[in-house]
Write the structure tokens for this entry.
Amino acid sequence: MFWGKSRNIIAALEVGSTKVAVAVGEIRPDGTLALLGIGEGPSGQVRKCEIVDFEVAQGCVREALAAAEQKTDVVIAEVYLAISGAHLRSSNTRVTTQVNHDGDEVTQDDVQEIQDMAAAQPLPTDHAIVHHLLQYYVLDDGSKTDNPIGLASKKLTAHFHQVFGLATRLQTTIRCVKELSIDVKNYCLSSYATAQAVLTRHQKQAGAVVINLGGGISDYIAYQHGAVVHTGVLGVGGDHLTNDIVSGLKIPYAKAELLKKTEGSVILDPADGDATITLPGAYNFEERNLYRASLNTIMQARQAEIFEIILDDLQSAHFWPDFAGTIYITGGASQVRGLVELASQIFPCPVELAHQSPFDGDQIYGRRPDLSTLLGLLQYARQAELEVPASRGLARVGQSLKRALASMRLI
Amino acid sequence: MIEFTADGPFAGGKADPLFPDRVRIIGLGQAGAAVCDQLVLHGRPGQDIWVFDSDQQTIEASVVPNRHLIGASTVHGLGCSGDLDLAREIVQQEAARLADTLRGCDFVILVVALGSSTGLALAEHLTQLGRHAGAKVIAIGVQPFSFEGWARRERSVAAIATLRAECDSVLVLAHDRLDASPDAPRNIRHRFHLMHQLMAQAVQALAQVVCKRGLIQLSFADVRSLYGRYQGAEALENCWVAHVDGDIHDTTGELIERLFNSPMLADESIWKLIDHAIVAVSGTRDLGLSDVQEMVGAFQQRLETDIAIATSASLDDEQHDRVRMTVLLAMTAPIPLEAKPATAKTPPKTPRVLGDTVSLAHLGPKKKAAPAAKTTVADEKPAPKSAKPKPAPAAPKPAPAYLPPVAIVGETIGEEPPIHDPRPDRAPDETRTRYVEARQEEMQFEPTRGRFENTAETIYRGENLDQPTFRRRRLAIKL
């Protein structure tokens, strides 16, 4: 039977401001993940992780999916989608339920009830929930636990970190994919996905902040005692550095992007003085000499501002006074020179560039910080797939048929 | 022969209108209406109660005789759906109708939910009217549940600040305080109902106190001394209510035990905060001074901490063989430092957990206060009553990201970065001066946001972050 030995394939899709990328992986029978390949293409009309032109963005997604299918020889019928954007907000909340059993023993039903209550938390108008991430449970004597089942308590309180965003913006991104006959199996906050790729359990326990410097946005997530305690999205990213260079040095966008990557630094060096950079001419662009100090001043001002805003937000969060962990920086815009030095000057705690967790597959992708969200999303998808019981019988037939039809673009 | 004419308060076997034209209770918004309904159904008869809301359903469902729908021409009886700006607009439109609301009364008790829209806008307006009319304004409000979101919570915090600047006394209760009670109903509708009952009992007790009528009299000054002193204004929640309704034949011990089983007193941490209490006792003519003394004494004995207690007692012939005891607990001292969040200096820009807001900090696990917080206590005191009331906090407006250029003269530049002067015929010395007076006000084009022209602006503290940082910070760029 054609569905008899189907492989457990998962796909992750990220629609970013600079690129659209699709990662395809396979969950092996022992539960490990193997990366089969990544298809990617430039992103069009996506600004700050929000779609500005639906058709153009959809075309980019289509191309990236096709590239991934071609590379991995896999038909993609459903994807896990990374969600981001400056409209996303978060809050810490708690939910309490009474335990009404003999002996006041907490059961799975109580835990399920409390999760249902968390999912039903009221949100601001026009907002939809993205995640409600469990932090810990509190029993009636004030003790905290990750797993309250079997413990005795008259009352059970669960602390959650909930992430929500504008429903219309979320729908636009999901619809962009679904209209290509690709199911969105689940979605995940970008920063949460990134953390799955770069943080170990030990690092989450010890306390960590992951800052993902993307093209259109900078998002960050904070862990303490193994739980998510704070998330944030700032609608400023690497594109803003480039835009500032365009505005300040009066050069085309493509030249500015190249200049940023090849010559730029976010550390001001007094030795630069009047040192200049020669920007080679092209058929419609005359060769120009630019002051290196000017370039670095523009970049340093923007990058320092991003870090200062993030620090300001972190300092206002309740976890910060007790935070004793490390800040990890990743993302495409983290490849700028002098970034860690600048961050170390601003953040009052250790700062490092993040390294991705090892995985099976082409290791060249593991060295690219701009793919950390995508690879983290794949890890998230693996975890989600392993938690859901494997479908059997008719359900499996249905899935296989759906995939076959999807491959023909009939649904 | 001497004839006796029954002209006392219970003449004719029926209570005369209580405090006519003196104490007016006004329920604002849906919550206010619900509290006033409780007063009409279970409170003393003859009270002067009014209700205002923009939601027709609320008004129609209310049992208060004096109920008024506002803003019908704008929202058509559909309410403001949490839009405070719309509610303020409606209130301004109805200003002429509202002008006479407080005429002739000495005391006004406003009942409002602090996270609401119509209620809050009305409270702001009526408070000002009350001050102009010379009436003493007491506001009693309830903070929203923590799960109602940070937006409502921040709105309630701003509302408390506004009301405290304007009102004579502000009593703030918190919905979340009922969480600690194992007897509090789990059904949210019932829980709201319970809170409305508690607020109604608090209003009833306040009315009893300020009307100076009864066996043992207190006055408005007693209320004001507890809820109008804002040395501890960091505390948002400053009032806890307990109530017991019993039979005159119940023993004092039973009554006090039931009083202490009130839902709001289930959280034992509140006793660390409470330093004052008003005990309002009312009952039939059979209620004697010794009974009151015994009840208050038993209440005092039951307390674990020593707090100052003021007692008011009154008779109510409508209560057949019943006795009611309402306790208003108050916190007048600042919150202990260790209960304050370490980063209280700056308001949160991001959603926060319940336990981290100032008022309910003691609910969550105790956090070690950062040294910086200790120095901010004095800074956070509200303006004194005599000070000009603070305007309502306005939404941050995006500041112009591109300010008119100021040219350079008269000042030595010093540490400022050198500014490039494109004029080739200028001597080097002249470039180091600043033309302070010359300011180009005209021909300021709106600066372009470049690549982000078609996207939603990213505004942070009034600055448009899509504009280049070097330009906003006026950094010199050599070309």
Summary: The mean pLDDT of chain A is 88. Chain A touches chain B through 60 residues (CB under 8 Å).
